[in-house]
Structure formats: C-alpha cells, structure tokens
Amino acid sequence: MVNGLKLLLTKINISNRIIIDREIIMTLIEQIYEELKENKITKNNEDFSIRFLNRSPKYYSVIKHKNLEANNEILVNLANKLEQLNFIRSKYSNNNKCEHIEKQIANELASRTITKQKPSKLLLNKVIRALQEHQTYLHTTN
After folding, report:
1. Residues of the chain with pLDDT under 50
2. CA-CA distance, 83 to 114, in Å (whole number)?
3. How buried is 48 (Cβ within 10 angstroms: 0-12 exposed, 13-18 middle, 19+ buried)?
4. What are phi and psi of 128, to 5 degrees?
5. How far, in Å, CA of 70 to CA of 47, rounded?
6. How far is CA 119 from CA 73, 106, 113, 114, in A?
C-alpha cells in the first residue's frame, strides 16, 4: 500500500522529447471517501470526518492535505460505522454498497499487522481467537 498522495513522474525519452506522465495515487481513506461521496453516502469532508471517522470536522481535510494515511483506530471507527450502515440498509434493501469497503479495511488492517514481521500460522490463529473472544465479550456486556 502506498502511503500518501504521491505524484509519480515518469520520464520517457522518445526522439529527444521528454514526456512526463502524471499519475495520482490516492490513499485508502481517500478512495473510501470518494466512493462514499460518489454513492451519496457522505456529503462532504466535514460530514465524513464527523460521522464516519468519529473526529473533528476538519480531520479528513488535514490528513488529506498532509498526505497521511488514516491510522488503525480511524479505520476501525470507519469499519464500525459502515457495518452499522449496512445493517440498517439490509432491513430495507439487498443492495449493500459498503460491504466491499469493510473487507478492504479489514485487509488493510491485517496487512499492517503482518507486513513487518511474518507471524507463524499458530500465532495468527491465536490472534483470530483472541479477537473473536473479545468480540463475544463486547456483545455480552452491551
């Protein structure tokens, strides 16, 4: 995963000409914001920051401007909000526009967890069990 919005400049020399190809690569959080906005699930940066990221109105604008990727806590907040939204929508429609975004976030969190160090399969299974137990505990206490 590429961190931050980056401008890639590719120089190709063709018959003494330099062609500059500009390609914009968005962060995961930017991709999600754009998709939610395109589907009219969020109105603007402030709405996205408050309702989906559980942060101040300018939070998304700041991390976008600074070319930062959202941290794990923010991704978990976002995934939880999308899960709630999907649950509500499922009562009225089979169209679940956000489920693939939840999977994307889960994959990103998993990738961040195991990228630097390659844990054993046994350790991964223990982590999965711990997460399941924690989730069960949260549901029984609420």
Report:
1. 1-23
2. 24
3. buried
4. -60, -45
5. 16
6. 22, 17, 9, 7
pLDDT of residue 29: 93
Tell me, what amino acid is at 129? R
Predicted local distance difference test score (pLDDT) of residue 6: 37
Q: What is the pLDDT of residues 49-63, one digit of tens each?
A: 999 999 999 999 999
For residue 96, what is the DSSP state? -
Whole-prediction pTM value? 0.66
Domains in the chain: boundaries: 27-141
How many C-alpha atoms does 108 have within 13 Å on its Cβ side? 24
Kindly report the backbone phi and psi dihedral angles of residue 9, in degrees, each rounded to the nearest multiple of 5, phi listed first: -110, 115
